[in-house]
Amino acid sequence: AQARASKAAQLGFKPIVGSNADAVVLPPGYTYDVLIRWGESLTSKVPDLDASKLDAGALLQPNAAEYQRQQFGTNSDAIHFFPLNGRSDHGVLCVNNEYTEDSLMFPGHPGLRGLRGGRSRAYVQEHPQVVPVAKAAQGVSVVEIKRERGRWRFVKDSRFNRRVTADTPIDIGGPARGAELMRTKDDPRGERALGTFANCAGGETPWGTYLTAEENIQDYFAKLDQLEARKDVDPFIIEAHRRWRMWKAQSLYNWDIADPRFDLATTPTEPFRFGWIVEIDPLDPTSTPIKRTALGRFAHEGASPVIAGNGRIAVYMGDDDKFEYVYKFISTNRFDPRNRAANRSLLDQGTLHVARFDASGKGEWLPLVFDPKGPLNAAAGFRNQADVLIKARMAAYLLGATPMDRPEDVEANPTTGRIYIACTRNENRTVEAGTTTYGGREIDTSPNAANPRSANNFGHIIEITEAGDDHTALEFSWEVFLLAGDPSGGRLITHLGEVKSDSAYYAGYANAADLSPMGSPDNVGFDRAGNLWIVTDGSQPHGGNDGCWVAPTVGPNRGRLQQFMSGPVGSEVCGCQFSPDDETLFISIQHPGAGGSTAEPRSHWPDGGSSQPRSSVIAIRKEGGGVVGS
Ligand code: FEO
Ligand code: CA
Ligand code: CA
Ligand code: CA
């Protein structure tokens, strides 16, 4: 631990300052390769997307969806690297493709994400062929990559290359497999779903498989109003969809126009087949991915498995919505490092828990277990364990879990075992104590010990230490590691206008002049030395672009947060995955140019000139080699 701690102190790069440039900005001595862009074909059987023709309607053409099914997906998010033959310069990359930025894909499409007008529905009605394209552009891209003569590239036509889309058959595993709520007309046994989408962060298992997290699935399902009007529908189904804040007459993406699976009035139980963690074997391109229902159903941001001292697997997870919860799954059985196949069922048996953070600085993991004599019984809407997992958010609420400020990525520090939870922000956290109905339940929205700021515009990070440093423990202690904002207490720009910050806190690090302002921590990652790397989604204290920051978590520089990278205009920075030798940092540049259109792009990254912006994965390296951050 001593050697590791001293290595953690070796962050030697010169921090950058926040930037509005339409560029990837890095410290002196660093460079990056654009590893793969949205639309680059994984096989020579289909052409690359010609982005210069987007404004002319390239994606409205009859072959667009067929091509997209074999091209790299859009809006890359989580990244995980699976080495081939133990190498750091050759491996298989799994990348989430979270959602479509329709304004940048379909000309004349007014449907910016979050713009809830009726015109975008009219556009999809007129051009229903955009739905299969959007479905093919999401999910997961699996691609072989190599570093040659210093530069990273992807390997076209590799046997590992694969797309998993919103239409790929996926098995349902675990306690909800076959459950009544999981059955549909097309799948009367409730055993095989079609597709994965809204894939946000992710994780990798100790046995070398990829975990992809289904997050904002509610934005794809329409017509809750019609379902609510029906008398023949189990009221628990309607209540469950309200808890997820499903859409009434139309959804954000309007997929129901082209696919009845997304019409709640036609297929009321289809949403129960989404909102899960999906396991994919990147080394077996013919394998069927599996939804691991024992890990619960909520807006999963990621899933971070850890091997506990006793060989059981703990998986830490966040539910990214305002006032949602932090979860931990503990497997029943033990990891077997000598038998990869035997580990494939580890995530099907175990107990899901949810966190309650107490003001004392202690906390407890509360089991989500069906019990006729406990709070999770038939009177509360749970007939069996499958119901508890499918409606995990309701179960967590009934157990008294602590409502958090959008808990996103949750990850364990590989050197200390401590857990870090990124809470992006929550501007709805009230100034005064009070309750409100949010997501179909009444909750206390006033600040609590683990979410201490009202109108939390810039987010924070919580650090958990499990009792006895045991990942299967049900008690823990916790502290606020970081309250994001401007450490010098200057005036900050938020969506509400200028506010004064007097509450930024960086693990007690004393010298504010050393620190970089940061807001909206989203995904986190660790290098082998245990430094905490953070990428952001939204609101920065001085209005700069999203980027990447790093802070040691131990030693005299604990909490010394410094900015390492800034992303292009309109982009969100995601991923944050190191190669095994720490010499490459893989980052996703998601939705560059968001807020613009194909006719009027706000960004021309990565190709410059007058080109269309394209989400891409980049590989950041030190010029001449060396550990990233040194
Ligand atoms: Fe997809 Fe929680 O960000
Ligand atoms: Ca995210
Ligand atoms: Ca992560
Ligand atoms: Ca995000």
UniProtKB/TrEMBL annotation:
InterPro entries, per the entry: PhoX, TAT_signal
Signal peptide start-end: none
Region Disordered, residue ranges: 590-630
UniProt cross-references to Pfam families, sorted A to Z: PhoX
PANTHER family reported in the protein's UniProt record: DUF839 DOMAIN-CONTAINING PROTEIN, SLR8030 PROTEIN
Protein name: PhoX family phosphatase
